[in-house]
Amino acid sequence: MKFSTLTATALLSMALATSGSAETLVVNSYGGPYEKIIRERIIEPFEVKFGIDVLYDAVGSASQDYAKIKATGARPGFDVVVMTASQSLDGCKEGLLEKLTPETVPNLARLSPAIAAVAGPCGAVHEVQYLSLLYRKDKLPEAPDSWSALLDENLKGKIILPTFQNIMAAYLMEVLSVANGGDLLDNVEPGFAAMAKLAKQSIGFEQSSSVMETYIKDGQVWAMPFWNGRAQLLADSGLPVDYVLPKEGSIPLVATLNIPKDAENRQAALRFVNFFLEKTSQEAWVTGYKVGSARTDIDVPADIRAKQITTEADLKALLLPDLGAVATRLSAWGKRWERDVVAAE
């Protein structure tokens, strides 16, 4: 999915040098299936509508992209980048990202205010995923409907958990905290207690989502927490898996479009962000990548709507932690995770 930074940079420079277009836009995002879908569903229609050439940069994770923005003083060589609400908040606070308003990006006014607020003024929410419970249909004939199903005796030694370096771990702990009488920030004792029990059920911990999924692919693991967008890709691949949003609720992974403060092609970047948030673009993205949207006026097929966050009721049902407050607690939570959760395995 990813190729070397040196190769990518060289190819990008060559493309920029040979481009004959009056206007060019560099978009940084992900490779693999994501790249194919974003090219077909968003980038190509954008190029046709505005006559702007888009150069696609698939190098780097969200955290690596943000590190590049910091290291270059907000001149990273790309004009639009896909990151998450956490980087959006940090980038705004540090003055590295452009503040977006309905005057510069009119479709921001179409987003759900509650979910848009999670990302702050520098992030345009273009996609909403949620922490789902992924399971093997051939091993668990009845779909689980609760996070507590992970504690069933028949799943002992058949689940895997993320390490604390993966934000999924903190979110799962918070969800279990709320499910067991605690809250998202100040009373997380029930969450750590529940995670310690889960650790005893698990075969271990992995940091990378791409590594975690190998365990359920080969059948070593029968159930695990996973972002629903990636879970959907596994289901679409023909693997005997499905996923649910458990009845106790879930925390979303809020994906954002961001513009570095000193992006070279600012006007084209603003047009791209607004275009991605158009109703038709959001419908194309939700049905293509099979994720949720912060726009609740989109029209999508019933089977997509049943699995994704697409309505105001869906959005209101999500647990929305204050990400700024979460960031201040991660260091302490990480130490406690090692002491109380990892040690309990």
Automatic annotation (TrEMBL):
<keyword id="KW-0574">Periplasm</keyword>
<dbReference type="Pfam" id="PF13416">
    <property type="entry name" value="SBP_bac_8"/>
</dbReference>
<dbReference type="GO" id="GO:0030976">
    <property type="term" value="F:thiamine pyrophosphate binding"/>
</dbReference>
<dbReference type="GO" id="GO:0015888">
    <property type="term" value="P:thiamine transport"/>
</dbReference>
<dbReference type="GO" id="GO:0030288">
    <property type="term" value="C:outer membrane-bounded periplasmic space"/>
</dbReference>
<dbReference type="InterPro" id="IPR001188">
    <property type="entry name" value="Sperm_putr-bd"/>
</dbReference>
<dbReference type="GO" id="GO:0030975">
    <property type="term" value="F:thiamine binding"/>
</dbReference>
<dbReference type="InterPro" id="IPR006059">
    <property type="entry name" value="SBP"/>
</dbReference>
<dbReference type="GO" id="GO:0019808">
    <property type="term" value="F:polyamine binding"/>
</dbReference>
<keyword id="KW-0732">Signal</keyword>
<dbReference type="GO" id="GO:0015846">
    <property type="term" value="P:polyamine transport"/>
</dbReference>
<protein>
    <submittedName>
        <fullName>Spermidine/putrescine ABC transporter substrate-binding protein</fullName>
    </submittedName>
</protein>
<feature type="signal peptide">
    <location>
        <begin position="1"/>
        <end position="22"/>
    </location>
</feature>
